[in-house]
């Protein structure tokens, strides 16, 4: 030790994140303010340790993987909602606030923050900002990046800065805010977040559940909505294997239609238009009452839990494909599943093209092969290897492939240079995400 | 000349932008594709000339100011709408497309791109992207930065890259797209733009015109809307001097109420709620018929023209203040006007706190003084010195002040370092915007 451990609450402890990654840090600190974080940064620099901010560990991509060379900064003691401004329509929070607690406080005042990742009952606002998390309302309202107005950040070089302004419109300088949103803890420690909020919907929202004849109809139904210029509040999908898992493990009692279940919520006066689009594609269609809709969404939210009960391994994919390519992507997923004699238990924010095929293959080599095949299919279709879970360690290689194919090697270079510019000592969450993707692309000629 | 002039259409010509800045470039090129632009970049580098992309010259802040040391790249020959995708809900265009032409094509297909700067009938999509332009619909739909999905860019180092993906959700790497949106031609030449589009509103929109008793009521009315969780489609304001200018110069025949005119458009079922908010604040209130509403908006759109006819000089301010500070900001503007014995002819996207006091003072020193006083008031109120017009040369000093006060000197340093990283030869639009702001802050101790 070159330096005494700073006077900030800390423990030595092992953890595991939601992807099952072991997290065995040198030390876990619980900072209470920015000054504590500066102390921790100095301590890490002097002892050549790296730093990873930790919300509540709901990462699915190895973004908080950590060994003895790293310090975890547990943000759970910085968990205050600092301000809900009902005139300027923003909320200012510390990163350790749980998203569910923020949602509840906002709802009391007639507001919502739309992005609602499936882990909202557990995850932190800081984590959701660092991952630019999405959720079921993405089709209408986008993901976190569309709602973050400004951030307070302790930089890896120790400066405390604010990026952005808590204003809807601001043109003072380059947009650095969006560099930090989705930066996965690689550019600094976020200590305050200003988020735009919006009034709760005023109109009655009706949920339509469609049990589909075949899987492909799901994609065609979404294309039908698009062609008819119908923008739903939500449009979700689960396949037949997910329905079966829900029935078996959560006693859901859902009809097991071959093509799975499509759940579409729209403002009341759009219901007939949606039903028309679904014509000929369904075994059964149901316009739900309020409590039924709630039950359906609660089951949808628990779908991953039901699938997890089916298998020892569970690996959540997170591809995005252009809506126009949904039917083709669905066919491709079917044929990949057949080839490897497996099921994908597809859960999907289908309305924005974000598909979560869940891989339950136990053999790690075959699992990796399937994982990459699915990712490459998304890339080939002009889609993305991640819509909302992020990159971490698990998707760095595929991210490199996507950027080299869609954007150009120079784009990955620029991202890497920006990382070095903001974090010259490579202190924050090293060897993951952009850095790891850049290394893949520069160490292996196959990628160029 | 170290190099022959490349084989790309060009002229020698003088121009003037909308802010009255002289544009006397060494040469004006009309590229037809990315390869032409690479040739121009190489020519500029070898001859130590700088480059400025030019849309249709509607900049109000000196962003395209240019002398004999600079080459203008006129993008008007790259003016194709390449794709309107009615399933994936994006449009892909070249930068020289006029915004009005894009609006018309989209409307035919039932779509809109909401940001509608007052110059939409003239300006280019490339210009609006480079400035992150706003407009009247900003209160509900934000400005350009919320609608750009991806960009093709020729970098100042000659590489052709794409940043972003034409997908609503994409987590593959740091968000570089938002660095280029609002970069004012300082980071590269944008050659293709993917923009998100959305269906035209399905519901009847009704426009309410309120002639106010006093100016302050305008701010209080907007706060009232906010407190009642009413999100209008538009909410615009013009003060009594603008009304008088419209009556005098465009024969508008509008009632000249002391407090100016507030124009609020909402979905039909919200009209009564709005009227209730306005109670006690108006001399007269009118719920307009469709053609009346159109006439009112057409007059609102021509307000700047009417004001320009009143004075030899016309200098459009563009501050943003938090909604909660609107009444105070309005009082402050009144007292600054009194102090300098002038009128501000305020035009405002008041619903998002974006105020355009128009300075008509002829003496350049006093004009500059007033200009800075207004900007500093916005900064002091936690607002911004620009909402949608950008920085260029005119606001660089105030931008430095805002960032030093709200964000920290390190933020300006980071912006400057990013400029150097992407444009190491300082080729693109040098000595403006971020670079100029950084120089102000580092050359004068008063700013630190």
TrEMBL record, chains A, B:
Residue ranges of every copy of the FAD-binding PCMH-type domain listed in the record: 21-200
Xref: Gene3D superfamilies: 3.30.465.10, 3.30.70.2740, Vanillyl-alcohol Oxidase, Chain A, domain 4 (1.10.45.10)
Pfam families registered for this protein in UniProt: FAD-oxidase_C (PF02913), FAD_binding_4 (PF01565)
Keyword flag Flavoprotein: yes
InterPro entries (alphabetical): FAD-bd_oxidored_4_C, FAD-bd_PCMH, FAD-bd_PCMH-like_sf, FAD-bd_PCMH_sub2, FAD-linked_Oxase-like_C, FAD-linked_OxidoTrans_Type4, Oxid_FAD_bind_N, Vanillyl_alc_oxidase_C-sub2
GO molecular function, one term: FAD binding
Name of this protein: FAD-linked oxidase
Source organism: Acidianus manzaensis
